[in-house]
């Protein structure tokens, strides 16, 4: 009989059951038993498990425990048999668990590969949409010719806003074609964009030192400015919209409005007053001056939804001190 010691008790190999009445007979041939048993396990090397479990595989007689008492011996044999079966079951379930884990991991890897593929496809679709917008419009310029009005800190904030604006456009179903006009190479704003915006050199947009005035016919240009009298009615794909590349909210009042008037350009503001009212719960701060990326989010949303409510929801944060009029909702 092969007796296996583990967890403080000894166990019997099932194959040895027949020999139980003959306790001690295997004592002389432990190795032969072990080899025979291993072969029968059809590749499942349970002995390894026992070694892992730090079970002593020595084959000893249990006559010292049940000397001359066959019922004690058979009870012990049954108990040990159950214990043995438990170990075999545990081993089987561990293997099953590992198989399932491997399967799940393979499926996960496959899924990730598929996701990567669709990411690539999405990128290709986004590129296609952008290039189509380049041909058909709408077009939007960020006028970077006024950065001398700003501090280095404001220039860095503007570079971050350009990154967000570009990010929104890339994700849009109906993007604009973008221009950074008045953007001179190695100027502080150009350097800030290169430094702060990963992959800036590969952005799908035109970066040019030229002015929008040199690129488009005057009648096509609409300068967007918070100080315009006229509210923007819609997004016309035949027009070129210009945003002032400025990060100032109060200091440079009417800067872009005056510039656009000097250049005899059409101007327009977002229709905030047409859809929203001052939130009377906010006492001190009410502003309709947004950042360039917020204005651009409004344009993109309007272009896609044809709804100014949706567009303004996307652009005007509660911090601006404005809420929607009930009738507009
Ligand atoms: C931070 S604002 C600069 C405000 C600055 N005082 C000016 O004179 O334009 C940045 C740009 O976003 C656009 N913008 C901001 N709020 C706007 C609004 N309510 N309607 C239209 N354009 C707006 C304008 O093009 C503006 O130049």
Automatic annotation (TrEMBL):
Molecular-function annotations in GO: tRNA (guanosine(9)-N1)-methyltransferase activity; tRNA binding
EC nos: 2.1.1.221
Catalysed reactions, semicolon-separated: guanosine(9) in tRNA + S-adenosyl-L-methionine = N(1)-methylguanosine(9) in tRNA + S-adenosyl-L-homocysteine + H(+)
InterPro entries the record matches: MT_TRM10-typ, MT_TRM10-typ_sf, Trm10_B_MTase_dom, tRNA_m1G_MeTrfase_euk
Cellular component, GO annotation: nucleoplasm
Coiled-coil residues: none
Presence of the UniProt keyword Coiled coil in the record: yes
Keywords: Coiled coil, Methyltransferase, S-adenosyl-L-methionine, Transferase
Domain of life: Eukaryota
One Gene Ontology biological process: tRNA N1-guanine methylation
Domain SAM-dependent MTase TRM10-type: 126-323
UniProt function note: S-adenosyl-L-methionine-dependent guanine N(1)-methyltransferase that catalyzes the formation of N(1)-methylguanine at position 9 (m1G9) in tRNAs. Probably not able to catalyze formation of N(1)-methyladenine at position 9 (m1A9) in tRNAs.
Protein name (record): tRNA methyltransferase 10 homolog B
Top-level taxonomy: Eukaryota, Metazoa, Chordata, Craniata, Vertebrata
